[in-house]
Amino acid sequence: MKSQLAVIALDHMHEYDIPGVALAVVRDGEVIHEDGIGLANVATSHPAGPRTAWPICSLTKSMTCTAVMQLVEQGLVDITRPVETYLPSWRVKDRDAGPQITVKMLMHHGSGLGRVGFQDRVRQESVNPYPTRESLMEAITTADLQSEPGRFWAYSNEGFATLGHLVETVSGIPLEEYFLTRIFEPLRMTDTRVHFADWRSASDRVVNYIRTELGEKPDGDTHGQYQPGFLPEDYQTYLSTGGIVSTAHDLALYQAAAMNYDDSPVLGRDALEQTQSAAFQYGDTGWGYGFGWSIFWSGDTRVVGHAGGMVGLNTFSLFVPSEQLGVVVVTNRSEAGAFQLAEKLVGEVRGTSLWRDSVEDPLPFESAYVAAADESPTAFDGDYAHGNVVVRVKGIDGGMKFKLLRDGAEEFEDTATRVGPESFLSRKAAHILQFVLDEDGRAQIKLEGGLLWHRVPGS
Question: What is residue 398's predicted lDDT score, i.e. its pLDDT?
Answer without folding.
Answer: 79
